[in-house]
Amino acid sequence: MQVLASAEFRPILYHGTIEVGPIWFRQRPENDKHVEGHGDGLRLNSYDPTLYPEVRLEHISGNPHGLPPGNWDYSQIISRVTVKAPVQVLSMFGQSHGALPLPAGLYDMRILLRRDEIAIEEDDEPDEFIDDFDDEELDISPGDPVEHWLIQFWPATQPTD
């Protein structure tokens, strides 16, 4: 298996969701707390406390054998999805964080999720409200992500009868 193209993003979370698409499903994922088929795409349900999870999209040459290095907490393969445009990572409100230039076609897709453990620190002092918002605060680095999503696409295999 060879990686033909890849793109990595750190989208900001709104209400814990990341949209990936456009992707059309023959059968949408159901009863899954991590991913949902939504509209013309995939919704990732994220719980990254940094609010900036890592999302990596890959176009690979064929069916992946085994898992990539790392301790993956979640893995799902969805067969025979249709892609008609570059696959984008979007915020809940449609803001694009970038795209993977994937040729139109029929693909199989694997979704992986890894969550890093974080140390929870007890704080004796109450949170303070921010009275004055400074636009420069938006330029602050979000720090290391806690969640790492990997979504791989490869040409769909023909069903066997």
Descriptive keywords:
161 residues, mainly beta, single chain, 11 strands, Substrate Binding Domain Of DNAk, Chain A, domain 1, globular, six-stranded mixed sheet
Describe this structure in words.
- The protein is an all-beta fold and 161 residues long.
- The protein has a single domain, classed as Sandwich (Substrate Binding Domain Of DNAk, Chain A, domain 1), CATH 2.60.34.
- It is 0% helix and 43% strand.
- The chain has strands at 3-9, 17-21, 24-25, 35-38, 41-45, 54-60, 74-83, 87-90, 96-100, 105-115, 147-155.
- The strands form two sheets. Strands 1-6-11-10-7-3 form a six-stranded mixed β-sheet, with no helix packed on it.
- The mean pLDDT is 83.
Distance between the termini: 25 Å
* Fourth CATH level, the homologous superfamily: Competence, DNA-entry nuclease inhibitor, ComJ
Structural class: mainly beta
Question: How many structural units, i.e. domains?
Answer: 1
CATH class: Mainly Beta
Helical fraction equals under 10%
Task: Tell me the layout of helices and strands.
Elements: E1 3-9, E2 17-21, E3 24-25, E4 35-38, E5 41-45, E6 54-60, E7 74-83, E8 87-90, E9 96-100, E10 105-115, E11 147-155
Parallel strand pairs: 6-11
Antiparallel strand pairs: 1-6, 2-5, 2-8, 3-7, 4-5, 7-10, 8-9, 10-11
Summarize the structure.
This protein has 161 residues and is mostly beta strands.
